Amino acid sequence: QGQLVESGGGLVQAGGSLRLSCAASGNIFSIGDMGWYRQAPGKQRELVAVITRGGFINYSDSVKGRFAISRDNAKNTVYLQMNSLKPEDTAVYYCNAEHRYISGLTSWGQGAQVTVSS
Question: Which residue has the higher pLDDT, 37 or 1?
Fold first, then answer.
């Protein structure tokens, strides 16, 4: 059974940067879109950014101009470079992979805590 493994979370001061990585391992399905979501305490999980296999990208308005998503299709890996971090970016960040051909079939990472201090 394949899985997504995240790394790179941590504690950073406001204005700082962090880079998250998410690699697919094992016998995971053929991957289409990949993305990052986040969930802050007491809030619903929200989309941060998504990238298609062809490199089309969509960001939430709250991170545009500060975060950058990228991927390496050969390695089944997605990255999230987070710059100019704000305390309101504090959340657990989850990576997500959609099946390339089967709508609604997805896999989630275990989550990475990102904490931004003021």
Answer: 37
**Nearest partner of 88 among 55, 58, 114, judged by Cα:** 114
Q: What is the pLDDT of residue 79?
A: 98
Q: How far is CA 53 from CA 41, 47, 69, 94, 104, in A?
A: 31, 18, 12, 19, 17
| CA dist., res. 77 & res. 57, Å (int) | 15
Q: Any bridge partners for residue 31, and if so which?
A: 99
What's the per-residue H, E or C state across 38-88? EECCCCCCEEEEEECCCCCEEECCCCCCCEEEEEEHHHCEEEEEECCCCHH
DSSP state of 29: P
DSSP state of 113: E
